[in-house]
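ARCHIVE CARD
CATEGORY: sequence design from structure
SOURCE FIELD: tokenized fold
FIELD CONTENT:
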């Protein structure tokens, strides 16, 4: 969901980052202090801000995607995608004409990337080496939001917010392979690499399990007491799902059967989750300016180890699996414009030229 729109989740409201076409954020509460609430005191070597990469420019933002092998970071910027070098932070390219872009999926064996363009309900295909645009595909549902590549079926999936369905795309022929009805508004998904995809359904607080080869829904799992599930991460070794919820919870599920294993406290306005298999750490990035870090101590035991102070609005992130660093996107925010009859509670404005990538690491 687009960031300017999604920032708002820091106060009680319903949201969705680039799935909201709006570019301005909602008001935000003050971030909790690092290590506060249920988190124990941070130990030496804990996660902290390493650097800021000022990028400026106009427009909103949503998902970030890290290609750790190719050392590239893809950053959605409303109408285009910035491409950064993961190591230097330098901008090395730009993918144009991605109207309302939410996310970016990489198909490494084909050296192709795919963007979900919410406003135009299309997918832009590009060459990851040259960054040349190779084509455009119309999705079978409106407002494609999250997007992922499933290596088991060799398909790219878009999760279409207004369409309440998923579009499956053959990345080689660049054609639509099928559609799966999801029965609600989808958010982020995760693939287990063995033919199943898990998708958050934000408006009815469920996870739908898809067969990525047969293109059909297999199961529906309630996420109660989770409200408005957004981010999702997956631990393939232990078959665990980590799901960020807007009522300041991170749910841990057994991906075999949907059994709830743990509920962990996180910050307000979560939009993304990540799991680092080498360190057994799960992350939740929240718009109130916190990054919750939880440790998987065993397949059935989890605890919050720290809450890192980031910056207001830093609700979307990407994990570099090689360096264990987290990349988050945000900006500075000004006061909201005067209320009107059409917009009685206007969102704060983004200060022009302040868009920044935060790099957080151990």
């Amino acid at each position: 969901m687009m960031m300017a729109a999604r920032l708002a989740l820091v106060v009680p409201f319903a949201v969705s980052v680039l799935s909201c076409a709006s570019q301005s954020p909602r008001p935000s509460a003050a971030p909790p202090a690092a290590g506060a609430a249920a988190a124990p005191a941070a130990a030496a070597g804990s996660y902290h801000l390493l650097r800021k990469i000022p990028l400026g420019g106009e427009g909103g933002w949503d998902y970030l995607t890290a290609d750790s092998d190719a050392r590239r970071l893809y950053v959605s910027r409303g109408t285009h995608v910035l491409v950064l070098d993961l190591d230097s932070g330098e901008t090395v390219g730009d993918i144009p004409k991605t109207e309302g872009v939410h996310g970016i999926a990489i198909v490494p064996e084909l050296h192709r990337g795919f963007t979900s363009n919410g406003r135009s309900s299309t997918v832009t295909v590009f060459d990851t080496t040259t960054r040349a645009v190779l084509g455009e595909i119309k999705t079978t549902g409106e407002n494609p939001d999250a997007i992922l590549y499933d290596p088991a079926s060799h398909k790219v999936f878009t999760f279409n917010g207004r369409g309440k369905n998923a579009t499956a795309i053959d990345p080689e022929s660049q054609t639509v392979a099928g559609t799966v009805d999801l029965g609600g508004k989808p958010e982020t998904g995760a693939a287990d690499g063995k033919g199943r995809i898990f998708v958050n359904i934000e408006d009815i607080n469920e996870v739908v399990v898809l067969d990525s080869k047969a293109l059909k829904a297999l199961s529906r799992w309630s996420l109660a007491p989770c409200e408005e599930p957004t981010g999702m991460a997956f631990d393939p070794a232990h078959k665990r799902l980590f799901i960020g919820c807007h009522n300041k919870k991170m749910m841990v599920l057994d991906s075999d059967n949907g059994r709830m294993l743990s509920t962990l406290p996180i910050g307000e306005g979560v939009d993304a989750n990540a799991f680092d298999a080498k360190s057994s750490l799960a992350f939740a990035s929240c718009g109130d300016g916190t990054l919750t870090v939880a440790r998987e101590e065993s397949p059935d035991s989890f605890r919050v180890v720290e809450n890192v102070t980031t910056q207001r609005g830093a609700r979307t992130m990407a994990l570099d699996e090689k360096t264990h660093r987290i990349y988050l996107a945000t900006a500075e925010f000004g006061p909201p414009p005067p209320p009107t009859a059409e917009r009685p509670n206007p969102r704060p404005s983004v200060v022009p030229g302040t868009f920044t990538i935060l790099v957080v690491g151990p």
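CARD ANNOTATION: The first strand starts at residue 48 and ends at 54. The mean pLDDT is 89.
SHELF: design records, drawer C
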